[in-house]
Specification:
Number of helices: 7
Helix content: 40-55%
Number of strands: 0
Order of helices and strands: HHHHHHH
Strand content: under 5%
Largest sheet: none
Distance between the termini: 38 Å
Shape: globular
Length: 218
Amino acid sequence: MMKLTLFTMASYAAAFAPAPIEPSSTALRSSIGEDLNYWRPNPAKPCYGLPGAPYTFMDPLGFTKNKSISEVKRIREAEVMHGRVAMMAFLGYIIGESTPTIFYGTDVHHTIANSQLAELPTGLLMPLFLGINFAEAYRATKGWVEPGSQSLFAIREYYYPGDLGWDPLRLKPVDNAEAFSEMVEGELANGRLAMLAVAFMCVEEQVTGRGILENMGF
C-alpha cells in the first residue's frame, strides 16, 4: 500500500509542476478565437466570460478576483471535477448502501457508505486506487503544462476546463455555442448542488450511524 501511495503522489507531481508565464488576454483572444468550445476570453466579464459565470456568478470571497486566465481556468477545472465526483458520490451513497450487493449480500440496511471503503479487502482497493491514479495522470497530461518552466499550477492555453475529450454518448453539442453553454451551466449547477448534498449526507451518517434512506424510513 505504501508503494502504491508513493506511486500515486509521484504521478500527481506532474500536474502541479512549473509552467510558462501566461500571455496577455489580448493575445489569448486572438490565438484561441472561437476554437475553444466557442469561448473567447473576455477580461471585462467575470471569469473571463466562461459559461456559468457571466450571469450566475457569485464570488463573495474573491477567489477569482485579479486572477490570470490560467488561474481562473484552474479554479473552474477544480469545480467541474469535484462536481462530477460529487454527482457520482451521491448515487454511490444511495445505491451502495441501500441495494443488494455481492460484498454485503441482500440485506439493504448494511454498512453505511462512510464505512464501506475501509471494509474493502486490499485486492479490491488496489484496482480502485490504480484506476484513480491513471485517470488523474491522464487529466494532468491533457490539461496541465509540463514541469520545468517558470510558474506553478498552469493550465494549457488550448485546454478547456473539464473537457477531456471523453464523450462516449455524444452528449456534447456540436456547432451550437448556445446549447454548449447551457449544457456546461447545467453540469455546474448540478455539480454544485451535489457537492453540498454529499457533504450533508456524510455528516448525517456520521451523526446517526444509519444510511440515508434508512434515516428517511425506507
